[in-house]
Amino acid sequence: MKNANISRLGGFTLIELLVVVLIIGILAGVALPQYEKAVEKSRAAEAITLVSSIAKAEEVYFMANGSYSNDITQLDLSFPGTPARYSGSGITGFQTKNFICRPWGGAWGWTDAVAVCNRLPIESFYAIAKLQNGKMVCRFYSNKGERVCKTLGTKNGSDYILH
After folding, report:
1. What pairs with residue 102 in β-bridges?
2. Given strand 113-119, what is the order of strands in its sheet?
3. Which residue of 14, 36, 65, 86 lies most exposed, with the fewest beta carbons within 10 A?
4. Is 81 exposed, middle or buried (0-12, 13-18, 19+ CB in 10 A)?
5. What angle (nearest 5°) sits at the alpha carbon of residue 113, between those of residues 50 and 156?
6. Half-sphere exposure of residue 141, counting CA atoms within 13 Å on the CB side?
7. Backbone angles phi, psi at 96, to 5 degrees
8. Collapsing DSSP states into helix, strand and coil, what is residue 129?
């Protein structure tokens, strides 16, 4: 009888363990979407930096040559990732782990863009572009992409203007 009381006082019941596991599961379910949102927002910040760098190099090229370049190797720019050539268009850009970026040249339907970075896989999330008028915009291709663009800027037609 004395042994039964000692073992009962020394541990947790199955119900107590199940309640703890359930509480941890609920907390993880609430925290995971917020974590994913924060990670995607940091990826978007990477794209904004890349687009800004390409756009600045394009402006320098424009001042020197009177037109924008569609070849990233002609720009005074060191870029991360690997070079990428777009078949049939003669446009060269670069690809990182999360984005494929390119200078001006009618990129993905952006006729007035100086530089565009598209979230990989292409046309499944969103793209960030710097326009010739100086505005930075986010265009979405899916619901997830719209949620990212919404956190970054203000809706204007089918795009979000970034602040």
Report:
1. 116
2. 82-86, 91-95, 99-103, 113-119, 126-131, 136-140, 159-162, 153-156
3. 14
4. middle
5. 100
6. 13
7. -105, -170
8. strand
| Mean pLDDT split into 10-residue runs, the chain, 163 residues | 56 92 92 88 91 91 88 82 68 85 71 86 85 89 89 87 84
pLDDT (tens digit per residue) in 50-97: 999 999 998 999 999 988 888 888 888 887 778 777 655 667 788 889
Summary mean pLDDT of the chain: 84
State both tokens at 89.
């268009």
Q: Rounded distance, CA 99 to CA 151, Å?
A: 19
